[in-house]
Amino acid sequence: MVPLVACSLLLAVQPPADGQPAEKPELYTLYRRAVVLADRPDDLATALANHPDVQIAEAEVRLAQARLAKARQAVAQGIAAAQSKVATAKAGVGTAEQALKAAEAELLQLEMSKKRVEQLHQAKTGAIASAGEVEAAGMKVQFGQAGIAAHRHQLEAAKAALAAAEAELRAAAGGGQFPVQQRFEAIAPFLSGRGLPVQAPVPPQPPQSLPGPAADKLLSQLRQSHGMDFPADTTLHAAAEALGTAAADKLVIRTPGYFSNVGGKHFAPPPAVGPLKGTRPIGEWLQLVADAFTESVNNLPGSPNRYAGRYDFFVRDYGLLFCRQTESPAGAMTVGEFARRAAAEEASRKAVAKDTAEAQAKPLSPEVLAKVKAALGKPVKLPAMTGQTPRVVYQAIMTGAGLDLAVEEQAYPEDARLTVEPAERSLAAWFEMLLDRLNDGQTGPDFRPVVCVREYGLLVTRAARVPPGAVPLSQLK
Asked: 435-465 burial, b for 16+ CB within 10 Å, e for fewer?
């Protein structure tokens, strides 16, 4: 193409005929430029290969690819490690289950052996078993029962380890809360550097309880039974207004206005919650209305349905708010969750009040106090025990002292373990030594471990948690 243009230009610059003036002398210059361009390399290809901006961008691409490969490798390693932990935890659960079954089978054999020894001791004919053999058989059964409790605790610990490993695997796969925060921290500099808005993800907040009087009032309103008759075309707003008016002191219930189809602007017809009829507490009516509305709004025609989702009533300081669960205020509880928590707290308060009243009205029986006091100085010989829970060791001490009483442990975490060397000490000395060994470093009189006498036996707890009517073991010495 360029030679053709050059030839054309060459013909165009031939000398003019005699007597005619020269025309367009600049054509020769154009011809020279065309020749130079015909011999020059492709400027675009040169610029794409050697321009500094292009080279910097290519270097950034290679760096990003290297980071991507490194991130993929780290994720793969994390997944492999988490899967290995899950497999190990599952194996631990299986081992603990097998050990528990073996211990239960052994306990069954010990109980059968104890029964035969007791029968021989009572028969007084033939092969006679002494009282010492009967006592030894009973001790074996009690130690077997303590071993069962230890194996059950080990099984629960193995299940907890499996749950933790599975949670770690989900987090490593990007399904937990922490990967979301990590992703935000990774992309935040990119967004801010380009002038884009940056908003940190809001972590989920635990549900907040209402103050005592407000919670009691709302709980009383939710428990009131009322008869309602909602026709098939009853809107959400009409049902909420009827329920709020029926409750004592008028329960304020706020619902989105567009679901009431005011002026026919949003729905034709609006989502309905009927037909509903019957007599039930307000709390049950609210749950029933929420379920009916959720079903109705999720069946609206059209695609996509921007109103689809799960709806519920949420507890607020002023009353109740009806909205989609994904749009609920942070920390707000649903009506059902509030009712369950309030009922549990109420039951707990009643139980504490009942225990306190019973302890104050009925002191410990003198028989229990005398029995424990008489056993304080008895020598108790324990065998070597390794990795046992405090409760198992405490029960072994009680059995060795001849006390047929139970022991409850509330002072230390469930994963606490004890190793006991074979020795002979008094019951009081054993408890003092073990409590000192289990001291977790917390100071102050409220955290001091205490052994108390209860009607059922002994309670190991903190000084601040001693229940009314309990007698510390130190007062019996």
From this structure: beebeeeeeeeeeebbbbbbeebbbbbbeee
Give the CATH class of 363-476: alpha beta
- For the record, the structure tokens of 142 come out as 């009690």
Instruction: Tell the burial category of 77 from Cβ atoms under 10 Å away from its Cβ (0-12, 13-18, 19+).
Output: exposed
Q: Cα(345)–Cα(364) distance, rounded to whole angstroms? A: 28
What's the one-letter identity of residue 256? P
> Which tokens belong to 292?
């009916």
- Sequence length of the chain is 477
What is the full DSSP assignment across 300-344?
-SSSS-TT-S-EEEEE-SSSEEEEEGGGSPTTPPBHHHHHHHHHH
Task: Name residue 421's amino acid.
Answer: E
Residues 211-222: tens digit of each pLDDT: 567 778 888 888
- Helix, strand, or coil here: 109? helix
- Label residue 4 by pLDDT band (50, 70, 90): very low
Residues 433, 395 contacting (CB under 8 angstroms): no
* Terminal Cα distance for the chain, rounded: 117
435-443 long-range contacts, CB within 8 A, separation 24+: 435/411, 435/460, 438/390, 438/411, 438/412, 440/412
Strands 385-388 and 418-420, by their bridges, are antiparallel
The distance from CA 69 to its chain's CA centroid, rounded to whole angstroms, is 32
Q: Which amino acid is residue 241, in one-letter code?
A: E
Q: Tell me: the pLDDT tens digits for 154-213? A: 777 778 778 777 777 777 776 544 445 555 555 666 555 555 555 555 555 555 555 567
**Domain locations in the chain?**
2-40, 54-172, 212-340, 363-476
Give CA–CA dist 342/211, Å, rounded.
11
